[in-house]
Amino acid sequence: MAKKMVVGLTASVMVGILCAGAIITLVHSTKIARHDFPSSIHTTSKARRTTNSLCATALHKESCELMLSKLAPKPSKQHPGLEASCVESSQSEIFTKFIDVKISELEKAVKLSADVANGTVGDRTAAAKADCRKLLTGALQYARAAYAHARDKDLKGLTAEAENIQHMLTASMTYMYTCVDSFEDTDLNAEMDGILSNATVMGSNALGVINTISSSAAKTKTLQPTSMKLMVYDADQHGYPTWLSPRDRKLVQEDSPKPDAVVAKDGSGQFKTINDAIEKIPANHTSRYVIYLKAGVYDEIVKVPRETKNVYMYGDGADKSVVTGKLSNVETQVTTRLTATFTVEGQNFTAKSIGFKNSAGAVNHQAVALRISGDFGAFFKCSFDGFQDTLYTHTGRQFFRECNVSGTIDFIFGNSAVVFQNCLITCNRPLDNQQNTITAHGRTDPNMKTGVVLQNCRIVADKALVADKEKLPSYLGRPWKMYSRAVVMESFIDDYIHPEGWYPWNGDFALKTLYFAEYGNTGPGSNTTGRVKWPTFHVITKAEATQFTAGPFINANDWLASTGVPNYLGFKA
């Protein structure tokens, strides 16, 4: 009877068993480096087409296909054509191997980076090296998190997690290039870039593969698309997600919820500094931790570390509860990201009615008021004041509502997927030899789901700039990185914005690869007839603009309701 049962197994089940064995062997034994690709691969044309199709959107397509061919099982006399079936049924295992190889290459790079700048004199270089090491540690953490989310999942499970995995991989890659950018010395910059090149290519290929897998599933409708999973949640009779705990639901409904900690300069709270309050947050807390910041000016450099999650911080008003600092790239020997007055690396951080300021001034160049690297960050009725590099939306998914952001050069920059809704965007007067650029997005790969969106905002000039708007032009943005993406939609644009609208970074850099778009704007500066003639600038339709609304672009349906921040997930009402 037992023999008959074994013999009676279907061909598809047997292929599945054999596939699993082949893939497991490959995943645990294959070590792939850029120099280790086979010169010739003996696979069937069907297998080759199947594996290569996973690399359809990869930026480094050739190396992606070579790696896939290395992973593809070889044909055998006993099971001809087995390799094609394995590739088709084991995409999740293959993708996991891509991340595994990226981690391996990144670990090698971390060791090699220890020798960069040895013997080089200068505090700034030493600071850059130290910061780079920290960033690479963060890059490894995000890569390992992506691996943990992908491991042991079937194709359906992998597709369901695709958006989160993509953002983890993007965060890892963003930390890597932030490390490279730390070095102002061009030779050291190039050396570090070379050290990270293999890990960069492997990370890029992983992004391409997961993008193809999730896109294919959505197109064929054989699986529930990730976008649909993230666009819909079960709600109670009041419209709140059913997964929102009773305590957190009460929290988001209250204007001034009962705090777990009170910070007050005058000593009337439990803490006099914000950092003291953050340090005392219990490590094992699971629900939202509420910090009330009483009115006062808090002159301190604050950091919410990565392991500190689910913090809700509110003040008495953006002009009353103010966090200020004056670190800058000129006056201090630190990298740009470390000039931030307030840094958020923890996930699910929400701030309301607080002001964030860097008072270093225009003459000190890069000086960040707030940097956020944590996923699912939300800010409501907050202000961000500075000049160059005011608001660093570094990586992750964020939402800003009814906030005021002011600055001069690249004052909203980074590689997050971020939506600014109903915000006031103000250009300050720059130095006499400068021009204003509002956005400078840092997308380095076309498969990154990142970009900056200004929706239903007011884009205006500070009074000090108005008189000099002709000699000190202002622009909506410029491309910081090769695949920079910025969209301005349903917003009021005042007449101080230059008719060309957008400004180049350096010569023709990124002008064929960026994505800048405008939709449905009003005001004297919204006329697009004089806009730049780059092929990558677009005046888009409503259908095209839909993808940049909060629901799909930052997966807002999946998390924004839990913050209590008002929003609309599509176009403005």
From TrEMBL:
Its EC number is 3.1.1.11. Residues 46-209 form the Pectinesterase inhibitor domain. Keywords: Aspartyl esterase, Hydrolase. One of its GO terms (biological process) is pectin catabolic process. It catalyses: [(1->4)-alpha-D-galacturonosyl methyl ester](n) + n H2O = [(1->4)-alpha-D-galacturonosyl](n) + n methanol + n H(+). Pathway: Glycan metabolism; pectin degradation; 2-dehydro-3-deoxy-D-gluconate from pectin: step 1/5. The keyword Chaperone does not apply. It holds the Pfam family PMEI. The active site is at 410. GO terms for molecular function: enzyme inhibitor activity; pectinesterase activity. Gene3D superfamilies: Invertase/pectin methylesterase inhibitor family protein, Single-stranded right-handed beta-helix, Pectin lyase-like. In the C-terminal section; belongs to the pectinesterase family. In the N-terminal section; belongs to the PMEI family. This is Pectinesterase. It comes from Rhynchospora breviuscula.
